[in-house]
Every structure is written in C-alpha cells, then in structure tokens.
Amino acid sequence: MIHTARALVGAILAASAVAATFPQAAAAENLAEVSTAFRWLGKNDRVVIEAYDDPKVAGVTCYVSRARTGGVKGTVGLAEDKSEASIACRQVAPTVQFKEKLPVQEDVFSERMSILFKRLHVVRVVDAKRNTLVYLTYSDKLIDGSPMNAVTAVPMSAATPIPVK
C-alpha cells in the first residue's frame, strides 16, 4: 500500500513537471457554468464556458464550452474530464490587429483536462486564400481511434490581410 502511494505521488510529480513544460499562451476567463449533475460531495458536474483572447490577434476571442467533472476527484483536480468541447471564435473589436506575422498553423491555447496526458488544444490555422483564421479544438487523448474536435472560422475583411510567416 505504501509503495502504491509513493508510486502515485511520483507519477503526479512527474506529470506536473511535464505539464509545466507546456506554455500557456493565454489564460481562460471563466464566463459561466451550468450544473448538469448533482454530487453529494464536492462540486457538481457542469458545463463551463471559457473565453480565450488570441494572444497574437487583438480583437479575436474564442469561446470554448466543455464538460467538467465534479465530485471529490473533480474538486481537487484528479478527475478526468470528457473529451468533448465546442468552440466559437469571433471578432469582438471594431478592427483586428495582428501583433506579429502568424505561422500557417499554431497551437494557440492548451489546457490540462486530466492529471496525466490529456490536454485540450486550440489550434489557429491561416487560410490565406480566403483571408480567414480557422480555429480547431481537440483533445489529445484518442477516443475510439479519433480525437473529438470542433472547428470555427473568423473571416477578415479585404482591408485587413493576414500577415503570414
């Protein structure tokens, strides 16, 4: 029993060290949550809505909704959240400003969804032909052979060409 506990603590510390190496380009702003299932102990299961401002594109915000597991494990951060997520990115300012040239594809946000090896990613893809920013969200843990994913797009006006590296 003691060896199992030590192994678990070692795994948690190793996972924390690995997670610390993933830079978070932007922090989520929690907008709302809706309770979906009652739990006697800890938080209820819920769907949360979070806003992420694109760190390289001022005036574009992505809204991500996803399930969060409650209970004791969820309250202390040990529960594994579901892989499903929905995304909608929008222009939220009168004009969009690019802080630098954008790569054609870039991991913009990444957030832990479980204690070990499961992350929610938001990737920005530049569709230069259509002058559009495409955002993809997915979980990096495979479920039945394919990662759950969702996509959205933010078209730019012809007067605002996307600067590509």
Protein model, in words:
This protein is α+β, with helices and mostly antiparallel strands. The chain is elongated, with a radius of gyration of 18 Å. The chain has 2 helices and 10 strands; from the N terminus they run αββββαββββββ. The chain has a 4-stranded antiparallel beta sheet with strand order 1-2-4-5, with no helix packed on it. Strands 7-8-9-10 form a 4-stranded antiparallel beta sheet, with no helix packed on it. The protein has a two-stranded antiparallel ribbon with strand order 3-6. Residues 1-25 have low confidence and may be disordered. Strand 8 and strand 9 form a beta hairpin.
Produce the secondary structure layout.
Elements: H1 2-20, E1 29-37, E2 45-53, E3 57-58, E4 60-68, H2 71-76, E5 85-91, E6 97-98, E7 105-112, E8 119-127, E9 132-139, E10 149-155
Antiparallel strand pairs: 1-2, 2-4, 3-6, 4-5, 7-8, 8-9, 9-10
